[in-house]
């Protein structure tokens, strides 16, 4: 497959607002693609060369790419960018006509060369590589190359779009493909396996350390009494107000075999060999020679790599195999934990606010941040030991395997086990809830101890009960921002004055409006919201975003930003496309979620 063919596909997808038409275009392309081409196509469609859980970035600024284009065109492009909207469009319009082309696989390798260039003088070297690539391809290909390099491709295609397109191929089954993706967390490898093995692909998706799985999600109920009706004999755990985290530990020597069969495997192994130790790692305890043999990766709820953000967790995780062996007598060369990372002050044994925990999500000055905001990981599940997949075991059995971790906070361990309780009455469950809220936590989670760990699912065998449920509205709501309105009065200086928000209609794969948000936001916060929104703005409304004409915003957004809101109540609404509206909504915070992980329309109805 030639890269020019892919660029032609991208240009067609970009101007196609209807999801089914976009899906048909992709299906036609996947039909003739080889497994390798299908994998590469899937990554490039979402503007990447690897899945989200692999921390490979191009690290190129708009300024650098503009300098490249100005060098080739021999003139300043500031005005051109303002008129056309992005540097890729400027290059396509002004570049000399060229019919030069290359194979998709060769193009992919050249993108890897750019991403892999490190060290002194790397920015100049990258500029030279980009110039060579632009000169070796057509202006249309260059348009999308530049957008990929500065992470601004935004074709409107998502993982779900790709899965649906694959599902229309012979032997395609969308439910099986979703399960395959939930277990690989890798849209490119999902396409590769399906194109290689057809409807038997799911059996080839083995769970391994180093590859996160989609998190099992939690449902909600409005009262403890309702929870006991669903789970008569639940276990009860504290609900932490932190960041979901998967901790993966494995032998450093196993890194290549863990990613066997993935099109990026060899490139990634070479890239990894060039990386320096995470900043701040030396601030923490010295590791034994045995512990230092292990590699650690940390992943967020969205499957993003957070390893470099928490050096103290990396150090603690390298010691887990020895802790496991001490408890059970068996060597554990692979361990995967699920849990929550939260700011915690060991000196006074106090949980830190969510906002402080969020300051740890950074790429720079990590060492100082780790000193100022220490964290703990509270692990509530174990998913893998060696090559044994524990997700199909009942929760009670997984908890037993997790017992190698300490629960005692006095021991000042960085990774600890979440406390477990087995309340025998509503009053006992309520008492535990109040105790944890009194300690500054969000609430509690009730679980069926026979439940399996099914990645990416949300059902009623795990139920949360939060302190906000004691109010008129049963819980806060996570909404997706789909547009904003330019400000008036004092807010005019920020260019933003209200947000349009939606919930996710899972049945129809659509985002439906539920509220406008304009209160609970300081001037300082408006500025940061504007920056976040502008990073995902788009010049057209996607087909699966349903907005009534009277609410059309000034600026459309891709459904990627999720925020938590409080409201007094939910009322029926003839205006909003969800059929519901939030009364007096108040902005609380951004959430670390994908748009499709926001509150669903069905959940809204239960509230």
From TrEMBL:
InterPro entries: ATP-dep_DNA_ligase, DNA_ligase_ATP-dep_C, DNA_ligase_ATP-dep_cent, DNA_ligase_ATP-dep_N, DNA_ligase_N_sf, NA-bd_OB-fold
Enzyme Commission number(s): 6.5.1.1
Homology family: Belongs to the ATP-dependent DNA ligase family.
Gene3D superfamilies associated with the record: DNA ligase, ATP-dependent, N-terminal domain, DNA ligase/mRNA capping enzyme, Nucleic acid-binding proteins
GO biological process terms held by the UniProt record: cell division; DNA recombination; DNA repair; lagging strand elongation
Catalytic reaction equation(s): ATP + (deoxyribonucleotide)n-3'-hydroxyl + 5'-phospho-(deoxyribonucleotide)m = (deoxyribonucleotide)n+m + AMP + diphosphate
SUPFAM superfamilies (UniProt xref): ATP-dependent DNA ligase DNA-binding domain, DNA ligase/mRNA capping enzyme, catalytic domain, Nucleic acid-binding proteins
Keywords assigned: ATP-binding, Cell cycle, Cell division, DNA damage, DNA recombination, DNA repair, DNA replication, Ligase, Nucleotide-binding
Domain ATP-dependent DNA ligase family profile: 368-490
EC class name: ligase
Lineage of the species this protein comes from: Bacteria, Candidatus Dojkabacteria
Protein name: DNA ligase (ATP)
Originating species: Candidatus Dojkabacteria bacterium CG_4_10_14_0_2_um_filter_Dojkabacteria_WS6_41_15
GO molecular function: ATP binding; DNA binding; DNA ligase (ATP) activity
């Amino acid at each position: 497959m030639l890269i020019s063919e892919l660029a032609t596909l991208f240009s067609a997808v970009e101007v196609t607002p209807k999801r089914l038409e976009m899906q048909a275009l992709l299906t036609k392309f996947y039909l003739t693609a080889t497994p390798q081409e299908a994998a590469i196509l899937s990554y490039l469609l979402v503007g990447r060369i690897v899945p989200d859980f692999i921390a490979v970035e191009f690290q190129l600024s708009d300024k650098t790419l503009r300098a490249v284009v100005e060098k080739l065109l021999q003139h300043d492009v500031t005005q051109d960018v303002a008129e056309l909207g992005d540097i890729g469009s400027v290059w396509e319009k002004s570049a000399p006509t060229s019919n030069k082309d290359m194979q998709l696989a060769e193009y992919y390798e050249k993108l890897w060369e750019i991403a892999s260039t490190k060290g002194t003088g790397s920015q100049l070297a990258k500029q030279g590589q980009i110039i060579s690539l632009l000169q070796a391809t057509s202006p249309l290909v260059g348009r999308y190359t530049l957008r990929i390099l500065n992470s601004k491709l935004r074709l409107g295609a998502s993982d779900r779009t790709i899965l649906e397109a694959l599902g229309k191929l012979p032997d395609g089954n969308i439910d099986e493909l979703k399960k395959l993706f939930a277990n690989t967390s890798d849209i490119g490898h999902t396409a590769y396996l399906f194109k290689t093995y057809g409807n038997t692909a799911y059996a080839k998706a083995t769970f391994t350390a180093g590859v996160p799985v989609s998190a099992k999600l939690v449902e909600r109920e409005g009262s403890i009494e309702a929870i006991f009706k669903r789970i008569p004999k639940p276990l009860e755990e504290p609900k932490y107000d932190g960041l979901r985290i998967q901790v993966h530990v494995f032998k450093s020597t196993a890194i290549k075999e863990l990613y066997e069969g993935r099109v990026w495997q060899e490139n990634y192994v070479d890239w990894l060999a060039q990386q320096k130790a995470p900043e701040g790692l030396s601030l923490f305890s010295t590791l034994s020679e045995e512990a230092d043999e292990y590699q650690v990766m940390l992943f967020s709820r969205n499957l993003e790599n957070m390893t470099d953000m928490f050096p103290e967790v990396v150090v603690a995780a390298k010691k887990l195999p020895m802790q496991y062996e001490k408890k059970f007598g068996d060597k554990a060369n692979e361990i995967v934990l699920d849990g929550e990372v939260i700011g915690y002050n060991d000196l006074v044994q106090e949980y830190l606010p969510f906002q402080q925990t969020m300051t740890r999500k950074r790429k720079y000055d990590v060492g100082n941040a780790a000193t100022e905001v220490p964290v703990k990981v509270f692990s509530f599940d174990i998913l893998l030991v060696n090559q044994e997949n524990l997700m199909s075991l009942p929760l009670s059995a997984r908890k037993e395997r997790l017992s190698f971790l300490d629960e005692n906070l006095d021991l000042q361990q960085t990774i600890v086990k979440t406390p477990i309780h087995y309340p025998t009455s509503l009053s006992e469950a309520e008492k535990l809830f109040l105790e944890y809220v009194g300690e500054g936590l969000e609430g509690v989670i009730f679980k069926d101890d026979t439940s399996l760990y099914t990645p990416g699912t949300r059902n009623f065998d795990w139920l949360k009960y939060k302190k906000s449920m004691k109010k008129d509205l049963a819980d806060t709501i996570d909404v997706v921002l789909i547009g904003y309105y330019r400000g008036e009065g004092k807010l005019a200086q920020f260019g933003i004055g209200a947000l349009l928000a939606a919930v996710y209609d899972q049945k129809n794969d659509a985002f439906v409006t539920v509220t406008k948000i304009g209160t609970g936001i300081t001037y300082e916060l408006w500025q940061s919201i504007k920056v976040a929104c502008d990073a995902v703005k788009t010049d057209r409304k996607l087909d699966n975003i349903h907005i009534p004409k009277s609410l059309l915003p000034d600026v459309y957004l891709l459904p990627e930003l999720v925020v938590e809101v409080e409201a007094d109540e939910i009322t029926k609404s003839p205006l909003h496309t969800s059929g519901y509206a939030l009364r007096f909504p108040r902005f609380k915070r951004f959430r670390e979620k994908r748009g499709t992980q926001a509150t669903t329309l069905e959940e809204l109805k239960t509230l």
